[in-house]
Amino acid sequence: MASGARKLVRSSFMASVRALLALTFLLSGGAATAAAAMVRNGGSPSIYGGGGEEGAAVIGRGGRSLLQAAAAAAAATTQSAVFSLDSYGAHGDGERDDTAALARAWSAACASAAPAVVLVPASRSYLLRQVTLSGPCESTIKLMVKGTLVASPDMSNWNESNRRYWIVVRGVDGLAVGGGGTIDGNGEGWWENSCKINRALPCKGAPTALSFHTCDNLSVNGLKMVNSQQIHMSVEDCTGVELAHLFLLLISAGDDCVSIEDGTHGLHVTRLVCGPGHGISIGSLGDDNSRAEVSDIFIDTVHLYGTTNGARIKTWQGGSGYAKDIVFQNMVMNSVKNPIIIDQNYCDSAKKCETQEGSAVEISNVVFKNIAGTTISKSAITLNCSKNYPCYDISLQDINLEMVDDNGATGSTCQNAKWRKSGTVVPQPCTSTN
């Protein structure tokens, strides 16, 4: 994405195996402990699930519970004009199609000159096919989900040319979404037909349950999201995004717990717990020889359990652009395979990728600070950088990474990396060179 374009952040979160979390700040997915994370300054998280083992996450803020957040949202509802789905012909039985009722309620609310609320009533279930709720709206609008929105189980209801979405909100500024209700992607049929599960099938994308596009000043506060077809929530091309009090019942897909992609600037994520999965990743960036720009990323207070990677930056050979001004700090690793890793030669292919000597996404001013715990790999620190575009200003501070069960000493590998250390760093950086 070119400089000056809308900020785009995609962060993916996956929960641990059969764990119910009570998280107490802004945004997370996770493991069996209390934590949370925060996304601000144009953040655009994507929350991924699909095809694996069960897990859960609860997100809170300021010590309030999900129910307290929903109650606060309900109080605000009484001050606005309310457009209930039931008033627009909805059945609310979870069996008959209520897509048109939601569309009519949204259209009326969006045209209201007074602040408006689209209400999904409590204790009822509303079956939906694909639906897009568009703006701009005449006044501020809230989508209060107190009951359940459930996806149609019939995969044929999805348009083959655009099957990547279920509920889309587009072009609505100042939107608030909450209510304490449930978004149910009804994803079991999609998981069974995933090409990752049944490799004889052709690969076709599954829907994102809830998507927000070009929505500035977006607040999502107090929702339960379960059984997504693939991605729970995606926020794209938006600025001023805050997510809070999200309860995510996930199916681990064995991918990144958090994925920070092209166009991400000024992202703050804190108090995060996750695992299993691939850890916290910036990238992959620069695929298909594209340009990528990522900067001002702050990852703080993280617990990882059994992940493939810990703090990772991954870029494709042949890309261009930069990933800079990045901090990973206050992280605890538990049986993580690659706790600290920069891979400027990333290759997601069944076949070995040949090393190229062309362009690369430049990586600089990266801090790994106060990181401790255990690894299952001898190489606890890996800095695998480009010959033509070496990584530089890589800082390693106060690191202590040991083999799980005291199974020998850890080491590190480096290639084309310019680093410095401060404090005690275990293992010693760059004890071997690739």
TrEMBL record:
The keyword Transferase does not apply. SUPFAM superfamilies: Pectin lyase-like. InterPro entries: Glyco_hydro_28, Pectin_lyas_fold, Pectin_lyase_fold/virulence. Keywords: Cell wall, Cell wall biogenesis/degradation, Glycosidase, Hydrolase, Secreted, Signal. The active site is at residue 278. One of its GO terms (biological process) is cell wall organization. It is found in: Secreted, Cell wall. This is Polygalacturonase.
